[in-house]
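Colleagues,

Please find the record for the two-part complex below.
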Amino acid sequence: MVTGPDIVESAATSPDLEARIDAAVAVRWEQPPVVQPSRRATLAGQEPTFKIGALWRADLAGDAGGTAGLDPGQLEWTRHVESAKALERAGIDYVLLTDGYAGGGSAERGLRSVLWAVPVILATERLGVVTVLRTNFTAPTHVARFGAHLDWLSQGRWGWCVATGRGDEAARLYGLDEELPVEAQVDRAAEVVAAVEAIWQGREQGVEFEGRHVRVHGHSKRPFPTQLPRPPIFGVGDSAAARSLAGASLDVWIAEDPSPDALVSARAALAEGAQRAGRAAPRIHLRTSLVSGEADTALRALASRVRDLAADKLIDGLLLDLPGGDEVAGERVRALVDILAELGVAEDYVARTGSW
Amino acid sequence: MVDRSGSDDLLRVGLFWPTSRTVFPTAYVCEQNPEALDLAAQQRLAVETEAAGFDFGVLADAYGTVSEESSRIGHHDPSIHAVVWAMALFSVTSRMGLISTMHPTFIDAIDLAQFGAQLDYVSNGRWGWNVTTGYRPDEPRLFGADGLADHDERYGIAEEAVVAVRKLWAQDRPQVEQRGTWVSLSGRLPGPGPATPGGPAMVNAGASDQGLRLAGRYCDYLFAPVVDHAHLERLNQRMREEAENAGRDRSAKVLAGVRCLLRDDAQEARDEWEVVKASMDASKELNVFAKTIAQGSKGAAYATNSGRGALQAERKEGALNPLVGTPETVAEELIELYHDHGYRGILVNTPYWTAGEMPRYGRMFARLQEAGVWQPIAQRSSLW
């Protein structure tokens, strides 16, 4: 028969124990727990400098892997850690992790951004870590909470890249027959962004959000993001609806088309949307490839094009598609960063890395 | 460690992870613990817990706050995210399992499957899923619902999600077609499959008939607030019946939640336990939590194991009493529970998680091993 301490013990409590009990009973909550980390980044204070990001690849370390099935090596923790360190050393500002639903055979590999952001965050100190979270599938409360925890773990280095769906194949995994039309998806995305912001702002009072697509009511538990007023929000998509959302709500819009005409048009559309919303226009980061084995002259040509676009105020940053192989990728990125610094696109990347 | 066959009959001991500063409703205990979101403290705890010998940790999770009073002291708010932080805890451990709570009522089946598969992959088969339907009345409103779905519906969702997820986790990630009342999907699991053949371990914390059925048919563990030894036997019997009905070759182990406090000196442990109990009695406002749970489907069983109710329950003959003493005396109690009453799973719920608390458990595990009721993970064929 197992006997608990209450049954075993029959001796009267000692005066010393009674004093301890009195003291314990007297404890109330005069000292609320400290829930803010020591370091806090603020979006409001971000420097208006040229930024460089890199699209995260699970296969950065080593070969790109086969096209069929899965290369387990690409999923090793240490490879993510080494890649993250290499990119931080290379002096860029952030990495962007996409959220995967691919069945296999692509670089995307179906990795879920909010999980694989963790080793990247833990392995770095200054690198921004942006994760895609898809608004077609992810409830605002989940976005807000994943973001808050990643922002907490990174001490203010997390950002959210808003994306909608990932095609009909992904939609079917969520029980839908097919994706909604683009406009409807963006309409929903705009509501999710607004709802997530409302959750983050409701840290004291709770949230009451009633939209056409999403509803959120109540009090979310802590933590909330450490960045104030909120972590940066990135976005992609070249439709009029996507640009409208970006202008109204986002901080960074990722451009896919490098032609000056397209960038001029995008800049104007974003500015118009921002003006309507009474806020600063989002910055434009141009997505471009850093091809493996690119010769120094080709790298310089890329840097020159970037300098020209930046000088014409058509872009505010780059999002690099990297070649496979962490050594190569790290070296190429470092070389590009150095050339851009040399060309005066930014003064010193290493010195200011870590701010949005 | 990718086998979840659980072929041995040895004891498993898990830690009810301190996902918040305190899971005991007392300001006194809270004041002494680290901040819940202190990464270094959480990782230190993981290292110490693994080194001591714990088989796994169970990370509870929820979305809403419990009460203003609870939030003010850090009781269940803030708390760590059971999925995101599991990655951070896996990064500093290599043997111990971690079981993350995910609600099929709030998370799509494909997300449950992908998060689970990737956590299991990255940890080399050390991850498990605690299937929870949620009970807090206000929480569903954070996800657009008007309120808590009725109990049958919640378990209907859970069962359909579990079925879908297990199909998605099957070897070679097959095409899955499911058209259910609540859960529908079509496709294959994207990304890596789980490291564990047949899918990661699963736990259900259900006290209701549906909860017991779900645990018995699909899960490796039933986490239960066992009131007394007769209750354990009833649960064991039910798990055997459900396993037989479902054609499973083994039944779910009952994981009995037990409050535990170890000190180097037995009197010191008893005194400290008195202090903890008195402080819980004093924190009357915090017992809103126990009432909330009691009003939910889990009913009286939880009410007697949480807060004030438990203080009476532990005085009953035949009750599963709190384990309070030295590592050696507590080990003797566990050995007796194993041999005389059929306990095979214990989930330790301890008030303190300060540095140095977990190493005491190392002595407890050493004694359990000596008595042949427990083995270190590395010496077993199955983690779970």
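Chain A is about 40% helix and 15% strand.

Comments are welcome before we finalize the supplementary table.
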